[in-house]
Amino acid sequence: QKEVEQNSGPLSVPEGAIASLNCTYSDRVSQSFFWYRQYSGKSPELIMSIYSNGDKEDGRFTAQLNKASQYVSLLIRDSQPSDSATYLCAVISNQGGKLIFGQGTELSVKP
Amino acid sequence: DVKVTQSSRYLVKRTGEKVFLECVQDMDHENMFWYRQDPGLGLRLIYFSYDVKMKEKGDIPEGYSVSREKKERFSLILESASTNQTSMYLCASSFPNQPQHFGDGTRLSIL
Residues of chain A with pLDDT > 90: what percent? Predict the structure, then answer.
């Protein structure tokens, strides 16, 4: 089992819809979770951090964490074509504090 | 804002050459990381460092070495470049157990 798993996609949603990106992790004691956005040919950019169970909202983005289910998600409301990118889920490893990345989910928002 | 600067955006080298990739951060971060990213393989950790003169192997250290003589600078060295090291190389830095911030990346081609 991979330490951090994401559906690779591509996930295609129409403009204005809600995009839902999901991630599961295997290390039950993980405490810190992040979402990065990566445009084609660019480097990953941190967009959300979440550390406790529940929802965290920032503009059109909502991160959701459920530690009991070892599940973290990212919701993008009112999706725009400019949201088209690969979204990487990352979890801090308890072995030395490294970030463990998922493979990323490619999101395509169609006008 | 955090600034992680990689010395080159694009680099072309020949097989057998010794190649140096430089990374500098301006946020006094203790941790620095080198990744490579290839289509379909995601981000793979090559080496990381928790402090000056300290280094740890990541998932794919073979064929690479690193140097961290100053806190703000982390260098990746390809001892004898080979074509299978053609890739996008990403440097990142962070405080301990905090999210990483990435440089713009170096697209390296080995001919």
Answer: 82
Q: Looking at CA atoms only, how far is residue B62 from chain A in angstroms?
A: 19
* HSE toward the beta carbon, residue A78, CA cutoff 13 A: 3
User: In the block, which residue shows the tokens 């299978």?
Assistant: B84
Of the candidates B42, B98, B105, which has its C-beta nearest A43's C-beta?
B105
Structure tokens at B46: 């090559």
Q: Given CB atoms, is A104 within the 8 Å cutoff of chain B?
A: yes
Q: Cβ distance B8 to B104 under 8 Å?
A: no
| Low-confidence residues in chain A, pLDDT < 50 | none
Dist. CA B72–CA B93, nearest whole Å: 9
Asked whether A77 and A68 are in contact (CB, 8 A), the reply is no
Residue among B43, B45, B96 minimizing CB distance to A97: B96
Identify the CA nearest to B36 among candidates B50, B54, B19. Answer: B19
